User: Fold these one by one.
Assistant:
Number 1:
Amino acid sequence: MKKRTPVSVIMTKNVITLNKTDDLTTAEQLFKEHGIRHIPVVSGSSIVGMLSYTDLLRISFADAIDEEEQDVDTVVYNMFTIEQVMAKNLVTVSPTNTIKEVSEILSKREFHALPVVEEGNLVGIVTTTDLIYYLLEQFN
């Protein structure tokens, strides 16, 4: 295992994002359509928050429905904005941070994704799943 491998090697570069003015129904559709669990919330190219699928589950009964179901009762979603539900105090990393450094951050915190930011712009996202895949590759 290479000790100085930068996180840019394993991060997702084509990031699905939301704008803070989008609604939570749109967010849920993106989560399901792309099979993802974390979506950075942006204003222009700057990240302003992170929304996780778990955040949606906390305010809804979405976990009680079938994952394939597309028609969800959106009454609860209309009661909140993305800005109210998203995490705002973000920890970010640089594309040059090492995989080891990112692993240490994720292992000590309660979240499972980190936005990757360069010069104030969102350039990627790295998740605990990315780290697990990287680790598994080391055994091949």
Number 2:
Amino acid sequence: MSNYMPTLKQLQYLVALKEHEHFGKAADSCYVTQSTLSAGIRELESLIGVTLVERTRRVVRFTALGDRIVEKAHRVLREAEELSAIAEASGKPLTGELRMSVIPTIAPFLLPRLLPRLRADRPELKLYLREETTQAGLESLRHGNVDCVLLALPFPTGEVDSEILFQDRLYVAFPRDDPRDPPEWIGPDMIDETKLLLLEDGHCLKDHALAACNRPELRASATMMGTSLHTLVQMVDNGLGVTMLPEMAITGGILDHTHITARPVRSERACRDIALIWRKNSPREKEFRLLAEILRAAETPPLNHGDA
């Protein structure tokens, strides 16, 4: 059995190839040439004496052992990054690089308020953002591709540390000429399941909206076709149905220049918890908790319970 120890660079190449399933794209992500990446992986295979990747002209296919080694490589790379993070965290907090995933139902509405504050208060922080769905963000966190994730709970996150930032109430949005125009609130029983438009699978807001209503028939009858909240708003504004929006989207101006009215949902579950999560026992925990405080300060005051 070989005593050869793979280099971090070789493991990085292998992980990138698994993620992109394409030598050219993997090389671009590692900022090296395709021949450099390919040679690094071949050298790794040669020195440990096993085949990790089956190469054909059109397909990159990992062997079963290759998949196992990639999983271990993720952990090794993550631990190596945390070694440098320990030293970085001992100095001035929130300086240097920080990679954060943000879900699409938060990013366009909170980040415009957050980023100017961070630039002013933490000019030495280099914040790299990835907008991706909750599950994709959790995978990025698990594999060490990001340091923290800004998302909405409840959602099964696994073993992570977290800070709840604030609650985000859910509203029903409908055309202003809709005959059902209550003065302040909308009860779940008032929502016509045949007209409810929701985001596609993969967006946790869909599950939060359905849980707020607590009506099993909505899951079967609602039309799940929206790729973004802005798409849903356009559908509602054109009379195609009603939808549910988070308060931060409304305060962020998503209904500006539309003929849409929004009312809060009368339900104990009609809200989601906005949270920042990170890997358990991360050496940057104090930084993440400081970032959570900045995120809280970026929240705007809540809406009135009347017209949005």
